[in-house]
Amino acid sequence: MRGARVHQLRQGFVRVFHVVCSNREEFCLRMYELPPDGEHASRSDAEVPAPPPGRPSLEQLRAQLLWLSALARETPLLVPELVPADDGSLMAYVPSEGTEESDQAGRQCVLLRWVPGTHRREEQLGPADASVVGSYVAGLHNHAQRHALTDTSTLPRWDWNWAFGESVTLWRVGEQFYSAGEMAIFEAASRRVHEDLQELGHGTDTFGPIHRDLHLGNILFHGSRVGVIDFDLCGLG
């Protein structure tokens, strides 16, 4: 990629770059502030910052990339196609600049092929667009029912515990912002959702890998097709 043009799109826990090569190939480089694999680790566990809430751990990121790779390999859906590292691994660790004592964390780097298309605002959408997006989501769900993940335990779970479990902020500080009557409504909703989800069960026809962040900012329109980007929140739901 010598001579490539690199444009930064996002900063933070995940740094995102648009890479345009001299042959006009385009890629998305995503750099995650995550520790190296155990065999390459040089910092103690206490020094490695934990991912912020809602962001994947190293193990979760690896599981997410496996599903994304399966989508690209097994379906016609337009998704970011993973470009493996030289050794065939899903990601490559780039240490921080400077000495081992540097307080700057290294990055796990993931290279993906650029998904073509443009974003649209809600007022620009018509029935045909909704149909195409709906068909795409159906394709995701159909693949999730067929795809056997090697280890689903490492994927984030977007279930009742995530929304209503004991650790949810609502139960810890909700009484500071809501009346007793309003909190009672939340509690009733929690019980109702729990009952409904229990009835649905966790079979592959109702529970499995989902994108979890399908808003217009992550949907690209390309001719008669749509593509979806940013699978950072994908998990089981």
How are the elements arranged and paired?
Layout: E1 5-10, E2 14-20, E3 26-32, H1 58-74, E4 82-83, E5 92-94, E6 107-113, H2 127-146, H3 160-164, H4 169-173, H5 180-200, E7 209-210, E8 219-222, E9 225-228, E10 235-236
Antiparallel strand pairs: 1-2, 2-3, 3-6, 4-6, 5-6, 7-10, 8-9
Report a brief summary of the structure.
The chain is an alpha+beta fold and 237 residues long. It is 29% helix and 19% strand. The protein starts with a strand and ends with a strand.
Top keywords for this entry?
237 residues; alpha+beta; 2 domains; 6-stranded antiparallel sheet; 10 strands; 29% helix; globular
Can you walk me through this structure?
The protein is an alpha+beta fold. It has 2 domains: 5-153 and 207-236, no CATH class; 160-200. It is built from 5 helices and 10 strands, in the order βββαβββααααββββ. It has helices at 58-74, 127-146, 160-164, 169-173, 180-200; strands at residues 5-10, 14-20, 26-32, 82-83, 92-94, 107-113, 209-210, 219-222, 225-228, 235-236. Strands 1, 2, 3, 4, 5 and 6 form a 6-stranded antiparallel β-sheet that branches. A two-stranded antiparallel ribbon has the order 7-10. Strands 8-9 form a two-stranded antiparallel ribbon. It starts with a strand and ends with a strand. The model is unreliable at 39-50 (pLDDT under 50).
